[in-house]
Amino acid sequence: MENYRRLVIAGNIGWTVLLVFLAVVSAHTRHGDGVVSQRAPLGCTYLKNVLQCYNRSADLFIPLGVTRIDLENVLGGSLDVKNIHHLRWVHSKIYDLNKAIVNPQSLRTLDLSFNDITRLQDSQFQNYTNLNHLNLSNNVINDLPRDVFINNQNIRQLCLAHNSLKAIPFQVFAPMEHLYELNLSHNFLVTFLDHFFKFNKYIEVLLLNNNNITKITSNALADLTELKRLDLSFNSLNIVSKGLFDSPYEPPVLKPSQ
Ligand SMILES: *[C@@H]1O[C@H](CO)[C@@H](O)[C@H](O)[C@H]1NC(C)=O
Ligand SMILES: *[C@@H]1O[C@H](CO)[C@@H](O)[C@H](O)[C@H]1NC(C)=O
Ligand SMILES: *[C@@H]1O[C@H](CO)[C@@H](O)[C@H](O)[C@H]1NC(C)=O
Ligand SMILES: *[C@@H]1O[C@H](CO)[C@@H](O)[C@H](O)[C@H]1NC(C)=O
Ligand SMILES: *[C@@H]1O[C@H](CO)[C@@H](O)[C@H](O)[C@H]1NC(C)=O
Q1: Three-state DSSP class for residue 192
Q2: Nearest ligand to residue 124 Cα
Q3: 135 within ligand 3 shell (Cβ under 6 A)
Q4: What's the domain of life for this entry (predicted)?
């Protein structure tokens, strides 16, 4: 009987300790603004609305309130980015975009540099309706399908530098009517047909350096009335058509071709 009473008392003390512990824990997880903070997943740091992770798997729990994710060497699996505005996911051997990123509707900036993407498909970014900054540099993309950028009229900066592009479909960037910076440097591009940029007349920065461009005809760049910086250095240009720069704009500085 005495033992039983001691047990009950011990039990009550146990419960009291547990309840006090829980109260302390819940008090600690509340900030002044009422946001409940959560522990960062392994290999990650989590500060305010930014989650950063290195050297781990992609199957991670995203704490509530995170809007920016920065991942380096985060391999495999897929990431549900519902409510994420900025995603940088680099050096992570991504090759299948459809598998890697789920629910991209909120993304405004996306940097997928230094991955293994070789192929994109028609309407690849159709659910990325709010994207305005896309960086696909340093992948191994060797083809752009004709309708790859359908639905991407908000993209203003596009970087495809350091890929393996040889030929790109006529006016493939047409859906991006607000595009102002296009970086196609370090590919194997050979030429651009007349009026290639007809629907991208707001481009201000066009980087075509380090390609294999042999010929640019007089109307290839004619529609780019806002052009402020054009880089054609390190190509195989031997003919620059008379009239290439006869557009209404001031002739841009043309670096000597190699
Ligand atoms: C991630 O791994 C690389 C290579 O092993 C290492 O150099 C780097 O310091 C690691 N980064 C972090 C933040 O642990
Ligand atoms: C885009 O979203 C729709 C509706 O949620 C879905 O059916 C479709 O598979 C998505 N497309 C891609 C390429 O993920
Ligand atoms: C894209 O990423 C590359 C490599 O990190 C960087 O050099 C480049 O400035 C980026 N471009 C844009 C437009 O973000
Ligand atoms: C174009 O891409 C190259 C390679 O990623 C990068 O070094 C350069 O800074 C980019 N230029 C701009 C203006 O983004
Ligand atoms: C560059 O173009 C020339 C002429 O069309 C071709 O002979 C050469 O193989 C090309 N080089 C590369 C690296 O694609």
Answers
A1: strand
A2: 2
A3: yes
A4: Eukaryota
pLDDT digits (tens, 9 = 90+) for 181-228: 999 999 999 999 999 999 999 999 999 999 999 988 879 999 999 999
Q: How many residues does the chain have?
A: 258
Residue 254 in this model has a pLDDT that exceeds 80: no
Provide DSSP, 207-229.
Answer: E--SS---EE-TTSSTT-TT--E
- Dist. CA 160–CA 141, nearest whole Å: 8
As beta bridge partners, residue 86 has 68, 109
Determine whether the shortest distance from the Cβ of 98 to ligand 2 is under 6 A.
yes
Strand partners, 240: 216
DSSP H or E segment with residue 84: none
Instruction: Sketch the domain layout of the chain as residue ranges.
Output: 43-231
Whether residue 157 has its Cβ less than 6 Å from ligand 3: yes
pLDDT tens digits for range 42-51: 889 998 899 9
Mention every residue, 6+ apart, whose C-beta is less than 8 A from residue 122: 145, 146, 147, 148, 150
Lookup: tokens for 39: 């522990």
